[in-house]
Design brief:
The structure holds two protein chains of two kinds. By secondary structure, chain A is an alpha/beta fold. Chain A has two domains: about 170 residues, 3-Layer(aba) Sandwich (Rossmann fold), CATH 3.40.50.300; about 80 residues, no CATH class. Chain A is built from ten helices and ten strands. In chain A, the strands form two sheets. Chain A has a six-stranded mixed β-sheet, with helices on both faces. In chain A, strands 2-1-4-5 form a four-stranded antiparallel β-sheet, covered by helices on one side. In chain A, α6 links the parallel β7 and β8. Chain B has one domain. Helix content of chain B is about 75%, strand content about 5%. Chain B contains 14 helices and four strands. In chain B, the strands form two sheets. In chain B, strands 1-4 form a two-stranded antiparallel sheet. In chain B, strands 2-3 form a two-stranded antiparallel ribbon. In chain B, α6 crosses α7.
């Protein structure tokens, strides 16, 4: 659609002992597109995210980022390459201020570790990135709040803000709308829409309104396998998807 | 006003301490020297425990190693120059910390505690069971290190007040340097690792390297304290490497309050002075022998009712929120 995919998986598989959590998954992410992955609980969506972000090493298969295989690289390395992720379960620095959460995220992009006698707040570029991430996610007025005192929705926003402060080109968003009210959800959908232009986004989501509002491509996973993948319209009318979603999973195994 | 108070208080305290030799006897000066050395030792451990989230139970290894380094470097009846022996002792500790760090930092939590303990015990038995450092009897340092600049003697460390000022100077320097380091991007990254190591990794921080740097810095600073302690007493024996010593410094950090740096200094004062008072036979008679019992109860009470330690108590007095002060 827009030239080469920036991130591409081929035959990606993850086994936990006898359980195959992700089985032979191939998918492409393009800059300017939201690729939504849906599926019932336990379908392997979060495991897939963990494989792409380096939180887990794949058992087999390739993860190609800009033409090089990054399967099995550590998560900090993958983050520095430009692949950022947010977590399904909010994963922030609770005792720090919102600003410090974002500043720390932005700091990871600048190799100043050895300049130990400069105050952390003295780097204009880091501060600018942190401010920008807060403003974009609507947390600009919360800069000095301690993260632990934020509402659930605001914590979800902070989760995304930290991810953005690392200047990623690929965003892996694991259920960013989880537990949000309708108003907050709407804002998050708008935020993700705004990010689409210069990011490649993989979005895992259960909220079907959000899914169809955002998706350029849609992949349905069941039991670790890709059941269907393509444009939202094509996937929606696919008989196997209708069977899985309307008839229940048991039918598939009969 | 409160933030000014916390900024100038350390300067005021060090200033007052510097005047102490002018008014007091040698005995108390030496006691205070011991306190300040333990304060350096405790600050080095606080860097790990309070700022990096690594509870080491083998910190005496670096303290003792530097002490032995001084003993082995000192000629029998002559003074060794402080200018090269102190950096050399620090270097030995840094190297040992770098090597052990690459191994122990692969573990976490209770395993980290056990592995750090194992390394320090290993060192203990190396010095205890070989003749290398005088075996279980230890080794003497008959002449304290010399501080000469050309032909001029900068300070005579045989004089208790000169030695005291050197220790005070080094403690102040260690405090200022650590403050700066902890306020830098490096220090913020360490705090981030303490709070949420997993997220730091996901944000792109090479967590292991940061922890190793912190571990090495901490071991080096513990070496400064160990060097000074050996110089003060004029001898070393395997006891300075023992787990009792690791436990004592950990208790000082907990007593003073983790993660504030000045808590380590307050803890050192409280611990050493309390130990001195409780074991004073003139005051407590036969009970003085059981001072550790009273000390144990005291530390339990602190842990129960003052989880932020004595530093937390001080902060309550200064009416500042704990989080703000820790962030400074």
């Amino acid at each position: 659609m827009c030239g080469e995919p920036i991130l591409q998986t081929k035959g990606l598989t993850k086994r936990f002992g006898g359980l195959v959590a992700v089985s032979d998954v191939s998918l492409d992410l393009y800059v300017g597109e939201v690729h939504v992955v849906i599926g019932p609980n336990g379908a392997g969506k979060s495991t897939l995210t963990n494989l792409l972000s380096g939180d887990l090493p794949p058992t087999s298969g390739e993860v190609m980022f800009e033409g090089r295989d990054i399967a099995g690289c550590s998560s900090d390395h993958i983050s520095r390459l430009g692949i950022g992720r947010s977590y399904q379960k909010t994963n922030i620095f609770l005792p720090f201020t919102v600003f410090e959460n974002c500043r720390l995220a932005a700091q990871s992009r600048t190799p100043h570790a050895l300049r130990v006698f400069h105050r952390a707040e003295e780097y204009a570029e880091i501060n600018r990135l942190a401010e920008q991430a807060m403003v974009v996610t609507g947390l600009g007025h919360r800069a000095e709040r301690i993260a632990a005192t934020l509402s659930h929705g605001e914590r979800r926003q902070l989760e995304i803000a930290m991810c953005l402060a690392t200047k990623p080109r690929v965003l892996l968003l694991d259920e960013p709308l989880a537990g949000m009210g309708p108003h907050e959800s709407q804002r998050m959908v708008e935020l993700i829409k705004g990010l689409t232009m210069d990011h490649a986004i993989m979005l895992i989501e259960h909220d079907m309104d959000a899914v169809f509002a955002l998706a350029h491509r849609l992949t349905v996973m069941v039991n670790g396998e890709v059941l269907a993948s393509g444009t939202p319209e094509a996937v929606r009318s696919s008989p196997s998807v209708q069977l899985a979603y309307l008839g229940g999973e048991e039918l598939l195994h009969d | 006003m409160n933030s000014r108070l916390t900024n100038y208080l350390p300067v005021l305290v060090v200033g007052l301490l510097a005047l102490f030799p002018l008014v007091e006897s040698t005995f108390y000066m030496q006691l205070l020297t011991k306190v300040l050395i333990m304060a350096i030792f405790a600050m080095s451990l606080d860097l790990l425990v309070g700022y990096t989230g690594l509870v080491s139970f083998g910190h005496a290894a670096y303290f003792g190693l530097a002490g032995y380094a001084l003993a082995l470097m000192s000629p029998k009846y002559e003074a060794v120059s402080l200018w090269w022996s102190l950096p050399a002792a620090i270097g030995v500790c840094a190297l040992f910390a770098l090597i052990t760090g690459t191994l122990v930092l692969r573990t976490r939590g209770i395993y980290f505690i056990m592995v750090t303990l194992a390394f320090s015990q290993m060192l203990f038995f190396i010095f205890h069971d070989t003749k290398f450092g005088g075996g279980s009897d230890g080794a003497y340092i008959y002449v304290k290190p010399a501080m000469r600049l050309g032909d001029a003697e900068l300070a005579n460390l045989e004089k208790p007040e000169h030695f005291y000022w050197l220790v005070l100077f080094l403690m102040g320097t260690a405090y200022v340097v650590l403050r700066r380091v902890l306020g830098s991007t490096f220090g913020r990254a360490l705090l981030g690792i303490k709070v949420n190591e997993h997220r730091m990794r996901a944000l792109g921080f090479p967590v292991f390297r940061y922890q190793l740097a912190s571990f090495t810095l901490s071991g080096s600073l513990a070496g400064v304290a160990g060097y000074l302690a050996a110089a003060q007493y004029g001898f070393v024996n395997p006891e300075i490497l023992s787990w009792h010593q690791s436990g004592a410094v950990l208790m000082i950090v907990i007593l003073g309050g983790m993660g504030s740096l000045y808590g380590a200094v307050i803890g050192a004062f409280a611990f050493i002075l309390l130990q001195e008072v409780l074991s004073n036979q003139a005051w407590f008679g036969a009970a003085a022998k059981h001072w550790q019992l009273v000390m144990g109860i005291f530390i339990m009470l602190i842990a129960l009712y003052l989880p932020q330690g004595l530093a937390g108590l001080l902060r309550q007095f200064c009416n500042k929120s704990a989080v703000k002060t820790v962030d400074e």
